[in-house]
Amino acid sequence: MNRLALRGIASRKLRTVLTALAIVFGTAMVCATLVLTSTAQRGFESWFTQADRGSDVIVSGKLAVRSADRDTSTPAVPAGLVGQIRAIPGVAAVGGEVEGTATLIDSKGKAIGVDGPPKLGLSVPTPGLTGLRLVSGRWPHAGEVAIDRFTASDQKVVVGDSIGVSTNHPTKRYRIVGLVKLAGVGASGATISVFDLRTAQAVLDRPDEVDTIRVQAERGVSPAELARRIDAARLQAPVTLRVETAKAHSERTMHEQLGFIDIFRYILLAFGGVALLVGAFIIYNTFAITVAQRVRELALLRCLGATRRQALVSVLAEGLAIGAVASLIGTGAGIALGAGLIALFNAMGLTIPAVPMALTAATLVPGLVVGIGVTLLAALVPAARAGRVAPAVSLRESVAGRSRPRRRSLVAGLGALALALTALSFGTLGDPGSIGARLLLIALGTVGLFGSIAALASRLVPVLVTVLAWPIRRVSGVSGSLGADNASRLPARTAATAAALMIGVALASFMAIFANVMAGTQSQQLDKSVRADYVVTSTTDYQPFDGSIARRIAAVPGVAVVARDADEISRAGNGAHVAFGVDPATFARAYNLDWRQGSDATLAGLGPKDAVMEETIARSEGLKVGDRFPVETPAGRHATLTLRGTYRDEAFAAGYLMRLPEWRSLFGKSTDTTLLVVRKPGASLDGVEAAIRSSVSGWAGLKVQSHAELRAYYESDAQDVTSMFDAMLALSVIISIFGVVNTLALSVLERTREIGLLRAVGASRRQVRRMVRTEGILTTLIGATLGLALGVFLAGLTTAAIEGAQFSVPYGQLLVMALVAYVLGVIAAVAPARRATKLNVVDALAFE
Amino acid sequence: MSAIASIPTATSPTSWADDSVAIAAARDVTRRHGGGDAAVDALRGVSLALHEGDFVAVMGPSGSGKSTLMHIMAGLDRPTSGSASIDGIALEGLRERELTKLRRDRVGFVFQAYNLLPTLSAAENIALPLRLAGRDVDGDWIAELLDTVGLADRAKHRPSELSGGQQQRVAVARALATRPAIVFADEPTGNLDSRASTDVLALLRSAADDRGQAIAMVTHDAVAAATADRVVFLADGAVVADEPHLSAGEILDRMKELT
Question: pTM score > 0.80 for this model?
Answer without folding.
Answer: no
